[in-house]
């Protein structure tokens, strides 16, 4: 299920190109031997090309009690983020800047393919590791690390100077993961912050890329954007028995061009890293375009829904529509509006 | 510098955070926007509005606002960040000889989702007769006080003042217990008689308070 369409991107001047699903289909039809011969990358297990993102589904204001929330799905990876705040900060003496706190948890049923327990891929079984795994118990190491990754990725985008003595809490819950959950969490959290009305410099979008070399001596790196769990890890499937490789994640705020976070698992040399990072940056820009479009559509169609009122008295849809009409002036804006 | 994709869709008057919406050479930056490198960008998701300038020669102001999310202009329970100069509505929790401890309930018409603590020091209660001010003759626990934020204070509380004629006690109940056993506050709601006293309308007994000057418009 998806409600965001991968937009067309000008590909001519870019090193790595990301194509829409329809372009790939058209190319396949034209060219029976398969994908672009220049790359000679075989298709992936789920039929995507090496530079094709998974279809994205975004829902906003999913957790209506929170200040803001978003839900993001990339096929089988499903992430839910709720944002609370800004609220008064109790822990320190006066601070003139706000603080962003992130709590990243896996749900008990979010198992990933490459757990050492040796269960099969998909993450649909009801088993859990350690009593009270996600949500309830203390954070596991990877959850703590992911919390740090996500909060650092988002910090640069929040106008913290406008939130003295305040804290903004970001709660991430991975409902199901099939690879790319940290990247998805970052993008989803950025949407939740925007939905909450917290003042931002811009949106942060994220993308992960797996890079591997099929044989050790050659140093010819192959990259695949938005890898599934199977493609991320292990010697089977996506890596085609590659000896060396790793997954690189990148979070980008396109408004300023800032890369707000980079993380890597595995082993890559500089060339592989470079290729992977470039592709991840392109992917992040595409995700950003999807996120932005979805926010605008949401604002236009549904407005704030019931979430913005904290249960203290609901406006009817008509009241809200009337108020929205009053607020919107159809004056044309300066030509800079793009 | 990377720029945002070219289409603003579906409607030109909605902006997402980070969208570039104007130039500082032709507009002022209003609430919901920020300035960077000579351009004005949206800080929040909302409708873009152009406000005509109040003074001649000023530039029109670009503003982004979301009517569904409460801010200082829209009512509703929300998390608003207090700033110096804001006038807030508070309830007195306890008093000492030197200061009054209050709980900040609302900013204008925005009820805070989570109350904060504030302090009104003896020196900040009134702008005349400072030496003779006694806190128990200005505030009592349970009073509702309108005050202005003086400083963001420390982690525990904000610092507030009532040293203006429009600030001070706006609602208080008298000491006298009602016959029927009464509500929590005890006595009857008092009416203001001067800047330093309020009166129980039935018993006519007055009690000292630092009273806010009643204004015609509701806030």
From TrEMBL, chain A:
This is Exoribonuclease, phosphorolytic domain 1. One of its GO terms (molecular function) is RNA binding. Residues 15-46, 113-149, 305-338 are annotated as: Disordered. GO terms for cellular component: cytoplasmic exosome (RNase complex); nuclear exosome (RNase complex); nucleolus. Belongs to the RNase PH family. Keywords: Cytoplasm, Exosome, Nucleus, RNA-binding, rRNA processing. Residues 52-199 form the Exoribonuclease phosphorolytic domain. Gene3D superfamilies: GHMP Kinase, N-terminal domain. Residues 129-138 have a biased composition (Gly residues). Residues 117-128, 315-338 have a biased composition (Basic and acidic residues). GO terms for biological process: nuclear mRNA surveillance; poly(A)-dependent snoRNA 3'-end processing; rRNA catabolic process; rRNA processing; U4 snRNA 3'-end processing. It comes from the Eukaryota. It is found in: Cytoplasm; Nucleus. It holds the Pfam family RNase_PH. It comes from Nannochloropsis gaditana. Residues 15-25 have a biased composition (Polar residues).
UniProtKB/TrEMBL annotation, chain B:
Pfam families: ECR1_N (PF14382), EXOSC1 (PF10447). Its main location: nucleus. GO terms for cellular component: cytoplasm; nuclear exosome (RNase complex); nucleolus. The keyword Cytoplasm applies. It comes from the Eukaryota. SUPFAM superfamilies: Nucleic acid-binding proteins (SSF50249), Ribosomal L27 protein-like (SSF110324). Residues 85-164 form the S1 motif domain. One of its GO terms (biological process) is RNA processing. Keywords: Cytoplasm, Exosome. Residues 1-17 have a biased composition (Low complexity). One of its GO terms (molecular function) is RNA binding. The keyword RNA-binding does not apply. Residues 1-30 are annotated as: Disordered. It is found in: Nucleus, Nucleolus. This is 3-5 exoribonuclease csl4. The lineage of its organism: Eukaryota, Sar, Stramenopiles, Ochrophyta, Eustigmatophyceae.
